[in-house]
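Human: If only I could read backbone structure tokens as easily as an amino acid sequence. Take your time, and here it is.
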Amino acid sequence: MRAQNFSDQQLVSAFLSGDSLSIEHLIIRHKDKIFRFIISKVKDVDLANDIFQDVFIKVINKLREGRYNEEGKFISWVMRISHNMVIDHFRREARVKMIRPSDEYDIFNTLGEEVDCVESDVINMQVFNEVKDLVTYLSDEQREVVQMRYYSGMTFKEISEECGISINTALGRMRYALINLRKLKEKYNINWVLQ
């Protein structure tokens, strides 16, 4: 039987059983989608290629460590890893800002920018964690759409194809998820804006 006839889960199982070619089939199967997502965020082909390679090194390592959750879909899991690695790249880039010497250089301006950046990161991480906690209260269908859209960066067309539902159904689930998240936000008195 040819590799394209196997599901992602079957290929993952084959890889874990020692078939190293099965991971190559998974990479080939999903490379366009993952690469498109990464390039849409970093806007640089060489950088996107580097992050793409790092993503699959991480995927392979996590699979070998037994850290793949079979309940979710493989592509959603890989998209989440890709999303996190893009965020990590931007965080590293923010920390390693090059300072050009000039007569007008003021160390206090730079310190102020770093404090603002760190404060912004802390606030964003807090909001991210609060939203992540609230998402667990949603129905399975709503939670899946929110995770695919916001944590995996998928379009509604991709979500509809992945879940086997219409685009309108995906949009409807997102709409109700946002309504429910707003209610939960008010219930727990959390201060952030849902869009």
